[in-house]
Amino acid sequence: MYAGKSFKVKKPSLGQQVFIGGKIDLSWVGKDKADASLSTDGGATWSLVASDIGGEDENRISLSVPAVQTNHARVRLVATRQLPAVQNSDESGDFRIVAPTLPPSPVAPQRWSSPGVANERRGLSVASADFNGDGLGDFIVGVPGLQVAALPDVGQAIVSWRASAT
To answer: Is the pTM of this model over 0.85?
Structure first.
């Protein structure tokens, strides 16, 4: 069906990062019912996490992420109640499971109106994401050339927390 296989795993993606205690989407194509297993050691050992799932052309379920940090997690689908073989199974590439990190709580909001300091290169790197998990996009601005006390070029990251969706 899919290059001689019953299934084709679409997600999780190679290199994807997921957080301990969160959820990971497993999606695949293939009409046969499947059993899903998780490996946290690059495929050396497997643990069954869901059985008798799928059966549609396109399939998707959410799996709980275990409390194990690894750079070599994989998900494997095998035709229900069968031993894995090339023709009846497929697995994802390695993805990462990492501990969630929460940013420090700000003591006071940063003021963006300051003129800055010569050669600090404020804004050389900028990123946006939901850093504090409140569902709103926050910003982080790099200041790589900032001098702190007598230490030149120590740098700083300034986080701007978004307070509302408007």
So the answer is: no
